[in-house]
Amino acid sequence: MKPKVLLYQIPIEKAKVLAQALSAMGIRTCQVAASDIDQSVGYLAGADGFEREETNTQNEENTKLLAGELLVMCGFSRMQFEMFMNFLKRKKICPGAVKAMLTDTNKTWTFSRLVREVNAEHLYMSQQKNKK
């Protein structure tokens, strides 16, 4: 699979900066539309063996749950991951965005499930950090 970053709810100006920087690294970006939140993460990432699923209607409950910026890194080498994270930190782009990696487990999930799981994990980690 070719490296790709899935962008969700990233403002257009930030998305342009990300796309330009990632392109220089040989990494593509893909803005995930609200109409695609019920597609599998594997399909959106371009992983082999995943096809677009027909969905009847957009789930209104999912739309309400998906708040905030999310970057999902797919097919990254360790070096690409480190370069990308350093770039984000250095340029202060998307500092509040939640970041996730495509895994063998989550590639079968719907994008909406990935967002719920990542947001729950982020909330838990934030609460643990605040306890210290």
Structure description:
This protein is α/β, with parallel strands linked by helices and 132 residues long. A four-stranded mixed sheet has the order 2-1-3-4, with helices on both faces. It has one domain. The model has no long low-confidence stretch (mean pLDDT 88). The chain is 45% helix and 14% strand. This is DUF3783 domain-containing protein. It holds the Pfam family DUF3783.
State which percent range the strand residues make up. Answer: 5-15%
Low-pLDDT windows of residues: none
Instruction: Report the principal-axis shape.
Output: globular
| Straight-line distance between termini | 40 Å
Q: What structural category do the secondary elements indicate?
A: alpha/beta
Mean pLDDT: 88
Question: Using DSSP, what is the number of strands?
Answer: 4
Helix content: 40-55%
How many DSSP H or I helices? Answer: 5
Order of helices and strands: EHEHHEHEH
Task: State Rg.
Answer: 15 Å
- Biggest β-sheet description: 4 strands, mixed
Number of domains: 1
Strand order of the biggest β-sheet: 2-1-3-4
InterPro entries: UCP014543 (IPR016621)
Protein name: DUF3783 domain-containing protein
Pfam families: DUF3783 (PF12646)
For the structure shown, list the relevant keywords.
132 residues, alpha/beta
Q: Quick summary of this structure?
A:
By secondary structure, the protein is of the alpha/beta class. The protein has helices at 12-24, 41-45, 60-65, 78-91, 111-131; strands spanning 4-8, 28-31, 70-74, 98-101. Strands 2-1-3-4 form a 4-stranded mixed β-sheet, sandwiched between helices.
